[in-house]
Design goal:
Strand 11 and strand 12 form a beta hairpin. The chain is mainly β. The chain has a domain of about 100 residues: Immunoglobulin-like. The termini are far apart. About 10% of the residues lie in helices and about 40% in strands. The longest helix is centred in the N-terminal third of the chain and has 19 residues.
Length: about 180
């Protein structure tokens, strides 16, 4: 009797999976952050995602699917086909994204009906540019010198620079997390 119950439960368990699961995501949304039509290098910290995908309906509350931006400014997200709204996290960024004008509260959304792969580049206007970087080791101190220039053409005034940080490490790329 015990074997029959275990066999019956196993049969129910394995057949139920066929009906509850969704198909795997199959649509890729990818692109590049660009500044003056060149890749815009950014922090690359995976805790600082820029983009959020939202999907309405299906009786759910959607907190958004975060899309990570790599250090070279590229991004790629695998999604289920369907209707999405893409927006930015409601935080202050050191740049403006031309396709997302900032309102008084939050950012606008861009609607996508994803049925096939989409490549969408976004154009950045930073508040400041850094140039003429020179870093060297003097004794036990690391001395860095660089120029900071305010970029014109932003819709909002550039925030005041409070501090600058330099990240050092033994790896090829170091960000604010590592």
């Amino acid at each position: 009797m015990k074997k029959i119950i275990i066999l019956l439960l196993a049969t129910i368990l394995f057949t139920a999976c066929e009906y509850d699961n969704y198909d795997a995501p199959s649509v890729t949304f990818s692109g590049q952050l660009l500044y003056n039509d060149k890749p815009f290098l950014c922090d690359g910290n995976d805790a600082r995602d820029i983009f959020l995908f939202f999907q309405e309906g299906f009786g759910k509350v959607d907190w958004g699917t975060k899309m990570h931006t790599l250090a070279d400014g590229s991004y790629q997200q695998l999604l289920h086909s369907g209707e999405y709204k893409l927006t930015l996290g409601n935080v202050k960024y050191p740049f403006e994204i031309n396709e997302f004008p900032a309102g008084t509260v939050g950012y606008d959304s861009i609607y996508y009906d994803l049925k096939k792969d989409v490549r969408q580049d976004f154009h950045i206007t930073p508040y400041y540019e850094i140039s003429d970087l020179d870093a060297k080791l003097e004794g036990i101190n690391i001395v860095a010198k660089f120029k900071v220039k305010k970029v014109s053409g932003t819709s909002k005034p550039a925030p005041r620079i409070v501090k600058a940080r330099i990240y050092l490490g033994i790896n090829y790329f170091v960000n604010s997390k590592s």
